[in-house]
Design a protein that fits this description.
The chain has eleven helices and no strands. It is mainly α and 266 residues long. 36% of the residues are buried.
């Protein structure tokens, strides 16, 4: 099978929820328009998959799915079941350390759950919730696969998308997955090419608050804090406290200690 690329796009994915302009869309359709004024063909396009790959890569993915007998079905319930099947297949390949096939399958699951906004606006509240419930673990798994493949930009996109989806569901139902998504995004934000230790630290602190007994998260948090302190020492101009003299950019250790983030322990 041919590999499917994974370019990093800058804009966040569109969540699979009702578009804010649903009322305008319905009104326009009543008058024979295919889409509401000002939104054009975007209402008719699927958005999720194109935030992880470009159009030629999407065509490669669809060809691979056809070759494997994994084409997307048409009916709503069948598409949900198909996404779950592909997520299970992705887990199998992930455990076998075949991250290429794991990525193909998880992107196939994203494709199965990718409806254009023009169709989303006709969903019932129950259907919208079902799509969110299905997409949440898919985004969590995708973030982990991207991490394993060293694609930290897409890991951040997948984790951020998953957190947006989680926001559509009751908080008590999503706590464990939100912790995983924050943890994975925090790891990606600590990597060299996507490095933002301030944001990584925020993510890992929140993950540790959600799952205080998770030792792996706490170890990542401790490592991030150490890296954060080292970065402050090595770049004192960037981290000079407000009001501090230019003649002493590094400040004294007491000043720096006072500025360190609070520990994530509850």
């Amino acid at each position: 099978s041919s590999d499917v690329g994974s370019s990093c796009l800058v804009q966040p994915p569109l969540c699979p929820a009702r578009a804010l302009f649903a009322a305008a869309a319905c009104e326009a359709m009543k008058h024979g328009a295919l889409h509401p004024p000002g939104h054009g063909p975007e209402m008719l396009q699927e958005h999720w998959i194109l935030h992880f790959c470009d159009k030629p890569e999407k065509e490669q993915l669809l060809m691979w799915l056809r070759q494997e007998g994994l084409e997307r079905p048409r009916l709503f319930a069948d598409r949900l079941a198909h996404a779950e099947k592909l997520r299970g297949m992705s887990n199998k390949w992930y455990k076998a350390v075949d991250y290429r096939r794991a990525l193909h399958c998880i992107m196939g699951a994203v494709h199965a759950l990718d409806w254009p906004p023009a169709e989303q606006v006709s969903f019932s509240k129950e259907q919208t919730a079902e799509v969110a419930q299905a997409m949440l673990p898919v985004m969590s798994n995708a973030a982990m696969i991207f991490l394993k493949r060293g694609d930290f930009g897409n890991a951040i996109i997948a984790a951020s998308a998953g957190l947006k989806v989680a926001g559509k569901l009751p908080a008590e139902e999503t706590q464990a997955l939100r912790a995983k998504l924050l943890w994975r995004r925090g790891i990606a934000r600590g990597e060299e090419h996507t490095r933002d230790l301030d944001e990584a630290l925020k993510d890992l602190k929140e993950a540790a608050q959600l799952e205080p007994q998770n030792q792996e998260i706490r170890e990542c948090l401790a490592n991030c804090k150490a890296a954060w302190r080292d970065e402050r020492k090595n770049d004192p101009l960037r981290y000079r406290p407000s009001g501090q003299s230019h003649s002493d950019p590094a400040g004294d250790p007491g000043d720096r200690a006072a500025e360190e983030p609070e520990d994530a322990a509850p």
